[in-house]
Amino acid sequence: MRKPSASLESVPELIGRWMGHLGMRVETRFQPSGDEEAFPNRLVVSGPDADWLAANRGQALDALQFLLHEAQGERDDHKLVYLDVKGARLFRMQEVMAMGRLAAERARELGSHTLGALSARERRWVHLVVSREEGLGTESEGTGTFKPVKVFRK
């Protein structure tokens, strides 16, 4: 494990400094997601230039989050900060978890149900929501960055 250099508490100031160097004005604040196991340490980015980070399906936000994780030096999900602009990621988490619950219902009826290709974080949400259900299991299928998730009866 890498030596952590940026604590969770220092991340909002770090973002402000980095964005300031780019000439961007943003504010940050920690705000609970409602499911800290699935979406811990949610840091909401707002302000006049926050929309720029959310453009192009959040690619700049993903890049900033990657840099923050590198600065934090952690690999434990519960110690890393996760960025959100205008609640888009919170909404996506809720949407994917609802898909996972629906897949669980379908798997109970049919024996199994496969969801389409999802990112690693989205697959984690599905695995998490299904793990909360009795008698069901999940597995990611295939290779690559985006993979389908199969939900099945045990």
Q: What would your notes on this structure say?
A:
- The chain is α+β, with helices and mostly antiparallel strands and 154 residues long.
- It has two domains: 8-86, GMP Synthetase, Chain A, domain 3; 92-153, Ribosomal Protein S8, Chain: A, domain 1, CATH 3.30.1370.50.
- 45% of the residues lie in helices and 21% in strands.
- The chain has helices spanning 11-21, 50-72, 88-110, 120-131, and strands spanning 27-30, 42-46, 82-85, 112-118, 136-140, 147-153.
- The chain has a three-stranded mixed sheet. A three-stranded antiparallel sheet has the order 4-6-5, covered by helices on one side.
- A hairpin with a 6-residue loop joins β5 (136-140) and β6 (147-153).
- The chain is elongated.
Mean pLDDT, as a whole number?
Answer: 93
Query: CATH homologous superfamily of the largest domain?
Result: K homology (KH) domain
* CATH topology group of the largest domain: GMP Synthetase, Chain A, domain 3
Which descriptor suits the 3D outline? Answer: elongated
Helix count equals: 4
Unreliable runs, pLDDT <50, ≥5 residues? none
Helix/strand structural class: alpha+beta
Q: What's the alpha carbon Rg, rounded to whole Å?
A: 17 Å
The largest sheet, given as strand count, sense and whether it forms a barrel, is: 3 strands, mixed
Q: Can you identify the CATH class of the largest domain?
A: Alpha Beta
Separation of termini? 35 Å
> In total, how many beta strands?
6
Beta-strand portion reads 15-25%
What is the helical fraction, as a range of percent? Answer: 40-55%
Strand order of the largest sheet: 1-2-3
Q: What would CATH call the architecture of the largest domain?
A: 2-Layer Sandwich
The count of domains is 2
Following the backbone from N to C, one meets helices and strands in this order, namely HEEHEHEHEE
